[in-house]
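Before relying on records like the one below, remember that each one covers exactly one chain. Contacts with other chains, cofactors or solvent are not represented anywhere in the record.
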Amino acid sequence: MRRLLVLAYYFPPSGGPGVQRTLRFVEHLPGLGWLPTVVTVRREDAAWPSVDEALCEDVPASVEVVRTRALDPYAGYARWTGKRRHEAVSVGFAETGGDGFRESAARWIRGNLFLPDARVGWVPFARKAALDLSRGHGFDAVWSTGPPHSTHLAALPVVRRLGLPWVVDVRDGWPDPTYAHRLGTSGPAARFDAALRRRVWKRADAIVAVGSHLADSLRRETATPVHVIPNGYEERDFQGVTPEPHEGFVVRYTGNMPAERNPEALWIALSRIADRLPALRVELVGTIDASVREAVARAGLDARVRFLPQVPHADAVRAMVSADALLLVVNRTEGAEGIVTGKVFEYVASGRPVLGLGPVGGEADRVLRSSGAGALVDWDDADGLAVHLARSYGAWVGGTPECGASPDAARTFSRSGRSRELATLLDTLVEARGGRPA
């Protein structure tokens, strides 16, 4: 059994979509010849947007998890803006509730003083823990995952000291185009951030990206080999999950919805055809930006749209499987054609039809079309979305509701298969260095 040092800020009991990729790799790797040891942040110091205690049950008993302290700028941010701490820790500044002076100043501080991200206060603690562990564990390789990309800065000195193969996992861009434009990052700060990024790319033995578009952008920055291991879904999460009964035709969205993901075309389409679809309603389950709520109110759809709080992952899966249709919205931002989140694959696995807004022909659209789960229409194509809604609703009324991807088509995207790809890459890197055999 080879040993892998894993550095990950998001790890159970952290909830939300960001934790799934790391958790599932850690869960499956022991069966593929790799025993992970995880360095993460302790709960009382963590700036996680949500907590899901049930995910702790999926961490194998053989996996050692070391939790460290961290300096948390979000506590100061909460005091500065008059929020409670859990409100301050929001993904992509969702639910910021406006652009007042305090919010704008806080974003400027984040974009210019906390580089590469606001979790940089974890770096010295994670680095020390990793170095301490390395003295007695005989690691064969190091794997760090971001965002937060400050995690890679914690791994960098460890890799330099030990001379181990290092895989840098990149789940989103560095900087993340979803909200980087809102931070007011100055030229000098941007150049410093770029220098940090180049140091990581140069020292890594391999970079892993979640999609081909992101991989292509990374290849333009570095000569380090870039591999694509997409996100996926955990088959066990969907086994035995049956739809729960509900009234009407429910279009459901699960997860965070920042301003860049506000489905304006949906509100326009619904305002035009709502009278023809009397039993249709939309449910948004998760952390929803204030601008989305305002858009729903402006469209006069308060009676049709329900806002529900974020739920544990198991409940989110049940909500997906129980929906009549699932809403997918790709961030309307630079590089959107390359965005394909883990939620896309979970939507596919649910077997429900997917109505999507985003770049037609992009990676998310290709996954939906190839699996038979659905398709995207352009963000501004309210007419096209109205046609999709009316067709799905009509099939439901007629007693022959539309289906999404088949189980066989979905199985292509399982997390176990993705983990096998990572294990193969790690084996190759170790053997290229003349490391000990598996």
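Residues 2-232+414-432 form a domain with the Rossmann fold fold (CATH 3.40.50.2000).
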